[in-house]
Design brief:
Elements: H1 2-23, H2 30-51, H3 68-88, E1 97-101, E2 107-111, H4 112-136, H5 146-150
Antiparallel strand pairs: 1-2
Helix pairs in contact: 1-3, 1-4, 2-3, 2-4
Length: 156
């Protein structure tokens, strides 16, 4: 499972990179920037729930969007942080339960595996929103299918 989670983060990193490249020349980047900023914050908040580096209440799911340049840099940094963390985890560790409190006061427990899967499924959801937005701007969105990253060319 550990290798699968790492590969999932690497795939999402590749896909977001292609999307950022497509959005870069566009004059209005506000919607992709808002969504990517939110995904970065989600990665930060969940990572912090595992590491307890700062009080959980100090991190928000939303906030002022980062700049496009910050999104590009911070996405790479935060995704790299998750990949490095997972590489250091044992298979047993990724099954550890993390206890956290929601903003409405509810107390919950989720495994590191469940959290990592949530982040990646969450990214797929918002990637689809960004791809729809790109298409609405009259631009063909970049292909980001998993198979494009993984397939091997065998000949012409």
């Amino acid at each position: 499972m550990k290798e699968y989670l790492i590969e999932f983060f690497e795939f999402n990193d590749w896909a977001i990179g292609r999307i950022l490249d497509a959005v870069a020349p566009m004059p209005d980047k506000s919607e992709p920037v808002r969504l990517i900023s939110h995904m970065i914050r989600a990665q930060q908040k969940w990572f912090n729930r595992i590491t307890l580096e700062v009080p959980d209440t100090s991190l928000s799911w939303n906030g002022s969007p980062y700049s496009f340049e910050e999104c590009t840099r911070m996405w790479k940094t935060q995704t790299g942080r998750w990949i490095a963390f997972l590489r250091e985890c044992s298979e047993g560790r990724i099954g550890d339960h993390i206890i956290y409190q929601s903003s409405d006061g509810g107390k919950f427990s989720s495994t590191i595996t469940e959290i990592a899967l949530q982040l990646n499924y969450h990214a797929i959801h918002h990637r689809a929103q960004i791809m729809t937005w790109i298409r609405q701007q009259g631009v063909a969105p970049p292909p980001v299918d998993y198979i494009l990253l993984k397939r091997k060319t065998l000949g012409p």
